Amino acid sequence: MKKGLSIVINIALFAVIVLLALQVVKSIQAPIKFSNEQKMRETQVVERLIDIRNAEVLYKNANSQYTNSFDSLIMFCQTAEIPIVKIVPDPDDTTFTRTINDTLGFVKVMDSIRGKRNSFNINDIKFVPFSQPQQQFELEAGLIKRNGIDIPVFEARTPYEVYLANPGASFSEKEWNQRRDNAKAERESINRYAGLKVGSMEEATTDGNWEKL
């Protein structure tokens, strides 16, 4: 009887040890899995923000200002063309020091932004990848004054709560939300935007915050 009880106790202890070991492994792997999932999602969000930046820069070149309307930005990309310019020597300059811009042709803005991506859809440029339900990037544009001069600026952004709203595989909703909130608190503790953005409404830049890490 005592021998049988001892076996039962040993089995129970072994089960507890295995359970604790699994919990330790899970606690180590969970932050790594969250970080990997966050990076995977942010790669696609950054790609979309770069498209927005490229479109805004071309829009400004054509209109001398940025736009805060995705409808206007998309329409511009669908209809506008930009010149293909080559810098050549000025044939009327006998000193061979001046140059002129020789327009070789035109290319559609949408084709310039699309690049080699066959599946590119300009109408998707406003939507945040992984947002459920689907949400748009926040888009602002305006002017800031520097040395008495009005300078056009824009900013497109989306917070963690949008593209990290839904749990990744192997995460419960509670655990996922806790890790997302921890990541947000960590960013805010060093006065960084808890999300991804490009441009700024406070300074004349078209940089993305992922480029300033």
| Whole-angstrom Rg | 27 Å
One letter per element, helices H and strands E, the order comes to HHEEHEEHHE
The average pLDDT score comes to: 85
The helix/strand class is alpha+beta
Largest sheet: 3 strands, antiparallel
- Tally of extended strands? 5
Distance between the termini: 66 Å
Outline the structure in words.
This protein is α+β, with helices and mostly antiparallel strands and 213 residues long. 46% of the residues lie in helices and 21% in strands. It has a 3-stranded antiparallel sheet. Strands 1-2 form a two-stranded antiparallel ribbon. The longest helix has 62 residues. It is elongated, with a radius of gyration of 27 Å. The model has no long low-confidence stretch (mean pLDDT 85).
Summarize the structure.
The protein is 46% helix and 21% strand. The protein has helices spanning 2-63, 70-79, 109-114, 160-163, 173-189; strands at residues 81-89, 99-108, 138-146, 149-159, 195-199. The protein is elongated and about 110 Å long.
Element layout with pairings:
Layout: H1 2-63, H2 70-79, E1 81-89, E2 99-108, H3 109-114, E3 138-146, E4 149-159, H4 160-163, H5 173-189, E5 195-199
Overview features:
3-stranded antiparallel beta sheet, 5 strands, two-stranded antiparallel sheet, alpha+beta, 21% strand, 213 residues, single chain
